[in-house]
Amino acid sequence: MSPSKVRVRFAPSPTGMLHVGNARSALFNYLFARKYKGKFILRIEDTDIERSEVLYIDEIYHDLKWLGLDWDEGPDIGGENGPYRQSERRDIYKTYLKKLQTNDLAYTCYCSAEELEIRRKDAIQNGQAPRYDNRCRHLTDEQIKKFEQEGRKPVIRFKMPEENIVVKDLIRGDVEFDHQLIGDFVIFKSDGGPSFHFAVVVDDIEMKISHVIRGEDHLPNTPRHIALFHAFGCELPLFAHMSMTMGPDGTRLSKRHGATSVNQYRELGYLPDAFSNFLALLGWSPGDDREILTRDELIDLFSIEGMTKSSAIFGIDKLNWMNGMYIRQAPIDKLTRLAIPYLQKGGYYPNGVNESEFVWISKVVDAVRGYLNCLSEIPQHAALFMNEEVEIEEASVEFIRSDEGQKVLQLFQSKIESMDTVDIDAFKSVLKDIQGELDVKGKQLYMPLRIALTGKKEGLELHVAVALLEKKKILQRIQTAQARPLI
RNA sequence: GGCCCCAUCGUCUAGCCUGGUCUAGGACGCUAGAUUCUCAUUCUAGAAACACGGGUUCGAAUCCCGUUGGGGCUACCA
Question: Which residues of chain A are modeled with pLDDT < 70?
Answer without folding.
Answer: 1-4, 485-487
